[in-house]
Design brief:
There is one protein chain. By secondary structure, this protein is α/β, with parallel strands linked by helices. The strands form seven sheets. It has an eight-stranded mixed beta sheet with strand order 8-7-9-1-10-14-5-15. Helices cover about 35% and strands about 15% of the residues.
Length: about 475
């Protein structure tokens, strides 16, 4: 052993010695530590998937608030017969004590149309969606476990209802790295406000911080200070970063247990590299007038324009090599006046989302890009309102929802699963959320049982306790 290394061992204090020795289990932990350090050296380098897969990247369209499957992609004619009749449900002791009042079935205020080769029924407001139905898989068998927005969002995004765990995008970046070292591996495009639960929805949790989502600003410049201050040359900036990096690395050598410091060093380097590439990626002015109009950008509907910009930016990001992009659209929590509230959401997303699918297909990216459209839960067939009221909406429903998938090895133009005649329960091809997460990873070439990280004394994974691939969704 070189003398320098001997000197370094002799300088270990008690805390560092116990950390590195693992309280007497140093030999057992050594291989894991070496593997961790090797990964930390190039944390986002491209890595081979566990098995061959068509999908190399993912765009996850999160409809925050819980879109109504009954009023969008899973019509229920039975509700017209039952409209304003009493909802038959055994009330819990909690509901009885709260005096929640009577509940009534409510029909959908929307009309539906058949589209695609199979004549799949969709809301009539979705005129542009009718053109991409044959590229979509409609999954109606998913069940979740919470009807509370923050816990349901955490569950959907991280597999844990209480937050603190890595997001799906973080797991994807951990398993596959990124295709472009000059851009983040996981990018989030939020709405004007963050979803309930905030940034924990795209955190890296117990994974190294390199893998957390990078949110871009929804208005104005997506990233502030992309250019260095006036008078600061690239050479001077490089010298400053080198000095800062040297000081940080010295500190890191004295405190190797602090993974955040390594991530901070890498974040400075990534920011420097991003200055060269990110401005071109986020510059939508480089797109043709026809493309902008296809996404609804520059039109009269400001909500459509905003979502259109995020959807187009998502396409540009995956095109540039970003591994996982999450687009967030808020405003789907319609407890009353659903015709007005959901109608506005459907109109705002019709053109942007269908344009994204068309654009990915036109550029040849759809085959290698998994696109997911989902909310945190579905809506109920009933509402606790005054009989005869026309201001009805729908409450939260964890037992039935519709998820859309496209590209990346998914069935095309298909309906998988079903709900009952009122849309209250999933009854065919029923799976819990952990199975859906396992399936998403599988489509990206990752095995949930092998994609693990040692934390708090045990190996952890996205599904928490394991799950099965929903084979019916695969092409």
């Amino acid at each position: 052993m070189p003398s320098g290394e001997c000197i370094r061992v002799a300088r270990l204090n008690r805390r560092e010695f116990l950390y590195n020795a693992g309280m007497g289990l140093g030999t057992v932990a050594l291989s894991a530590l070496l593997a961790r350090d090797a990964r930390a050296a190039t944390p986002l380098a491209p890595r081979q998937p566990h098995h061959p897969a068509k999908a190399k990247r993912c765009i996850f369209l999160l409809m925050e608030g819980g879109p109504s499957h009954i009023d969008s992609f899973d019509p229920k004619p039975k509700l017209s017969e039952l409209h304003m009749t009493r909802f038959q449900k055994e009330r819990s002791r909690f509901e009885a004590n709260m005096n929640t009042g009577e509940r009534y079935y409510v029909r959908s205020p929307f009309e539906f149309r058949r589209a695609g080769k199979l004549g799949i029924e969709i809301n009539s407001l979705l005129g542009n969606f009718a053109e991409v139905v044959d590229d979509l898989c409609f999954y109606r068998g998913l069940k979740v476990e919470s009807v509370n927005h923050p816990t349901a969002l955490y569950h959907l995004n991280t597999g844990n209802q209480f937050g603190g765990d890595p997001a799906v995008g973080a797991w994807t970046a951990y398993g596959l790295g990124t295709e472009n070292q000059n851009l983040p591996a996981f990018v989030v495009l939020p709405d004007v406000a963050y979803p309930q639960g905030g940034a924990a929805n795209w955190a890296s949790g117990y994974l190294p911080p390199h893998f957390q989502g990078t949110p871009l600003r929804p208005e104005g410049a997506p990233i502030l200070d992309m250019a260095p201050p006036a008078g600061v040359t690239p050479e001077r900036q490089r010298a400053n970063l080198d000095l800062l990096g040297d000081l940080n690395r010295r500190h890191q050598e004295r405190h190797p247990q602090h993974a955040d410091l390594a991530a901070r060093i890498e974040s400075y380097e990534l920011a420097f590299r991003m200055q060269a590439e990110m401005p071109g990626v986020v510059d939508l002015a480089r797109e043709s007038k026809e493309t902008l109009e296809m996404y609804g950008i520059g039109g009269k509907n400001p909500d459509e324009d905003a979502l259109g910009r995020r959807c187009l930016l998502a396409r540009r990001l995956v095109e540039a090599g970003v591994r996982f992009v999450q687009v967030i659209a808020m405003g789907w929590d319609s407890h009353d006046y659903i015709e007005k509230a959901h109608g506005a959401r459907l109109r705002a997303m019709d053109r942007p989302v269908s344009a994204l699918l068309k654009d990915l297909k036109r550029t040849g990216l759809l085959e290698e890009t998994l696109v997911v459209w989902a909310g945190e839960f579905g809506r109920s067939p009933d509402n606790g309102i005054r009989q005869g009221s026309t201001a009805w909406g729908r409450d939260h429903n964890a037992n039935a929802m519709t998820v859309l998938l496209a590209g990346g090895g998914v069935k095309r133009g298909a309906i998988v699963g079903a709900t009952d005649e009122t849309g209250a329960q999933a009854v065919e091809c029923v799976h819990p959320l952990r199975d859906f997460h396992v399936t998403l990873l599988h489509l990206l070439g990752l095995d949930d049982a092998r994609l693990r990280f040692f934390h708090a004394g045990r190996e952890k994974q996205l599904s928490q306790t394991g799950g099965e691939v929903i084979r019916e969704l695969l092409a």
